[in-house]
Amino acid sequence: MIGSFILAVKLPFHVFLLSYAILGPLHYLTEIGWLDNRAYFVTNKKDTWILVLLCALMTFGFAYKQFGQYEITKTWNEAIVNSWFKPVSDFMLHYERSFIFLAFYTAVMMTFVKKTGYRYGLMAIGLVAAYFLNGINAYTMIIGMMLPTVIHVYVFTGAFILFGALKSRSVSGYASLFVFLGILFLIVYQRPKAGQYELSEYWLDTMLQSKFIELGGQIAIFMGWAKKTTYLISTPNGKMLSTIALKMQIFIAFAYTYHYLNWFSKTKIINWHQVSKNRLLVTFTIWIASMALYVYDYKLGLSALFFLSVLHVFLEFPLNHLTFVGIYKELKTRITSKK
Q1: What is the pLDDT of residues 146-191, one digit of tens each?
Q2: d(CA 88, CA 63)
Q3: Can you tell me the distance from the alpha carbon of 194 to that of 88, in angstroms, rounded to the nearest whole number?
Q4: Which of 51, 96, 145, 205 has its Cβ near the most Cβ atoms within 10 Å?
Q5: Residue-wise pLDDT tens digits, 201-218
Q6: Of 244, 263, 249, whose CA–CA distance to 1 is shortest?
Q7: Rounded to whole angstroms, how far apart are CA atoms 107 and 102?
Q8: What are 39-94's pLDDT values in tens digits?
Q9: Cα 233 to the chain's mean position, in Å?
Q10: What is the 3-state secondary structure (H, E, C) of 83-113?
Q11: CA 10, 16, 22 angle in degrees (round to 5)?
Q12: Closest residue by Cα to residue 202 from 18, 75, 45
């Protein structure tokens, strides 16, 4: 954890890009396999196909926007592409945050509602809620932008640390949570300077392609920490990151890097490696191929791995819900026993 923080402070751009390209795909693949062995922590494993479908719909909307620029797509029949593929993709993009909301909402029903009729009935209500919520700025930011990114890698990771400490009553667990929150405090109160961070053309272009600078900016502007005119500072040499932009990048680099390393560091506890040899072979084959894609073209790697990256977030939602319920029960037990 401390190592991730130090690296994020020293090399916030490099560390993030490398972690996302190298550790990210292996994390997606191993976690999905681990969740599958545990029936995704839902009452009926077949229900998880709803999460897969929602992820596929979201990916379809993303596909035209990302792949439309590549030469291979320009050889397609433009009449066919413009007549149905692009309009459908635009429609899916318009409701992108609805797919994320529905995945989060339906995961609650999959996890806690045992009766099939009630479960599907409540899921249907979520469709109505998603329709009316679409377009609200706070909803778009929290559900559409933050939930599958910083909430997933920081808030949910913190919840796992807290739940583990409460269950085991471990001093080291509580110390780990204290350090985890303390690092956030240090990121907030430090004063990084743009002059300390120099990026070559390759790393700068790659960072811009990842769109995570935009993510940090949108979150900072939404939270009132910066304005559009101050997040990126105009200089004679072009655009330069402000102090708040550097803080956001350091936070993102730390959160993602530790999120991945935390998963792999707990192999003996989680036992994510205890799967069939065939699954492990497929996992490592896809992992090596994904890294090759990132080396060849980082943006192409992001596009090709989009479905997998979102799918592991969606499939983890039931476990996230159980974790927060577990935290509540543990705290309630402590309070009740003291009384």
Answers
A1: 999 999 999 999 999 999 999 888 898 899 999 999 999 999 988 8
A2: 11
A3: 42
A4: 51
A5: 777 778 777 777 788 888
A6: 263
A7: 8
A8: 999 999 999 999 999 999 888 877 666 655 555 455 555 555 566 566 666 777 77
A9: 28
A10: HHHHHHHHHHHHCHHHHHHHHHHHHHHHHHC
A11: 125
A12: 18
Nearest in space to 290 (alpha carbons), one of 37, 24, 62, 4: 24
- Rounded to 5 degrees, φ, ψ at 275 are -130, 175
Tally the domains of the chain: 1
Nearest to 73 by CA among 300, 236, 225, 263: 300
For residues 258-288, one letter each, b for 16 or more C-beta atoms within 10 angstroms of the residue's C-beta and e for the rest, the string is bbbbbbeeeeeeeebeebeeeeeeebeebbe
pTM: 0.88
The continuous run of DSSP H or E covering 236 comes out as none
Cβ neighbours for 240, distance < 8 A, ≥ 6 positions apart: 194, 232, 233, 234
d(CA 16, CA 90): 30
Give the Cα separation of 250 and 124 in Å (integer): 40
From CA 331, how far away is CA 237, in angstroms rounded? 54
Nearest alpha carbon to residue 309 among 236, 259, 253: 259
Range of the domain at 181: 2-338
Q: Are strands 238-241 and 232-235 parallel, antiparallel or unpaired?
A: antiparallel
Here the tokens at position 70 are 């590549």
Structure tokens at 69: 């620029």
- What one-character DSSP code corresponds to residue 114? -
Burial of 235 (0-12, 13-18, 19+ CB in 10 A): exposed
